[in-house]
Amino acid sequence: MKVLRQIGSVTAVNLRSLPQRVGTSLVIIIGIAGVVAVLISVLAMSTGMLKTMSNAGRDDRALVLRNGSAAEASSALALDAVRLIGDAAGVRRDADGKPIMSAESIRVFTGYRKEDGAEVNITIRGVGPQIRALRPELEIVEGRMFEPALTEVIVGQAAHRQFRGLNVGDTVRTRGANWKVVGVFTTGDAHESELMVDVEALNAAESRGGNYQSVTVQLESPRAFTAFKDSLTSNPALSVDVWREREYYEQQSEMITQIINIVAYVVGGIMAIGALFSALNTMYSAVSARVREIATLRALGFGAAAIIVSVLVEALLLAAIGGGIGALIAWSFFHGRTASTAANVYGQLIFDLTVSPELVAIGIVWACSIGLIGGLFPAIRAARLPVVDALRAV
Residue 154 pLDDT > 90, yes or no? Predict the structure, then answer.
């Protein structure tokens, strides 16, 4: 109890003297705030992307690709394969007994960003006639749904915000056809980065006959996935890979989110080293400025533990304040901001940066770690100060 009382007393004295060291304290706070703001803002990209991709999938939907295909763009399924997939076990059927599914094809066309006019690749997805039953989250927020067999297109809300020439009434020109924009839709997931058309119209325009690239099916329940997968993989007439829809989209974003995370921690780590040295110098300066005060406390019988803890508490408090400010900066400037992946053969993915509570917690942990390490060695030095020499210091 005596040690705890000493720690409380010395820490209180130490914290009351903080206003006298505003300048040096701000060095720690600003440095750590910068580290946390950068770390969280970069990680917010991967969090937002993963959230957008995972929202595109449901556990009661399954996605079928050609065996060995890494993504839809590299897959190909013939019409006979599509029919066998629809007849598989575990597929939900509508009131007329038809399987609720969508055989789909995707293409990429060149568009332009509204912000700077930069050329980008935009995905246009051909979907089946039961797309509304398969994806009840799809809502038309402007205009109407496209008519089957016509060269009409609906535009995802995210794509509508980001790219030029996608207003209702505009014409989208691809290699095989001119598509009239008749509606804008929202799904709350990655599909909002795309345009949707009737798959048969798209295949006809691209002269692809009855070839598709993927099939998405509605399962009777999430538990029906195993029966559905086994039914397809055991069929000698098929050579396909079967995914839970959610797992497929998470896997598609995994590599790029890993790269973003590595960049975030490397950049954050480099900045953290700078902030750590700043904290060390500042805390050493604070200890040097309080040499006689510390020596007096030691002479009065206060133990080394009380001195060490008081210095560490000061460093942690300043670090926590810096971490909180950094998290607030990241949330204020980046949360909800729209970003997109770089253009590639698969088109662009548009997503909102997400500063989640988990990211804020990571930032605070980093801040406190920097404060703890930055305050540890000055705290030990303070506790080891020779009392007699310190009292003689001017």
Answer: yes
What is the DSSP code string of 281-348?
HHHHHHHHHTHHHHHHHHHTT--HHHHHHHHHHHHHHHHHHHHHHHHHHHHHHHTT-EEEPPP-TT--
Cα 102 from chain centroid (whole Å): 28
Least confident of 35-44, 153-162, 201-210: 201-210
- Higher-pLDDT residue of 259 and 108 is 108
**Cβ–Cβ contacts within 10 Å for residue 378, how many?**
24
What are the residue ranges spanned by the domains of the chain? 2-54+254-392, 68-238
* Cα Rg of the chain (Å, integer): 30
Which of 157, 192, 167, 139 lies closest to 348, judged by CA? 192
Q: What is the DSSP string of 208-271?
A: -TT-BSEEEEEBSSGGGHHHHHHHHHT-TT--EEEEEHHHHHHHHHHHHHHHHHHHHHHHHHHH
Question: Quick one: which H or E segment has residue 198?
Answer: strand 195-198
- The Cα–Cα gap between 220 and 71 comes to 25
CA angle 160, 163, 167 (to 5 degrees): 45
**What are the pLDDT digits (tens) for 89-120?**
999 999 999 999 999 999 888 888 888 888 88
For the chain, count helices (H), then strands (E).
12, 12
133-142, 200-209, 278-287, 312-321: segment of lowest average pLDDT: 278-287
Cα–Cα distance for residue pair 73/105, rounded to 1 Å: 8
> Packing angle between helix 245-289 and helix 22-55, nearest 10 degrees?
180
Residue 394's pLDDT is what?
44
Strands (E), 219-349: 240-244, 338-340
The yes-or-no verdict on residue 248 having pLDDT over 60 is: yes
Q: Which two tokens stand for residue 182?
A: 């008749």
CA 233/CA 220 separation, integer angstroms:
18
d(CA 24, CA 102): 63
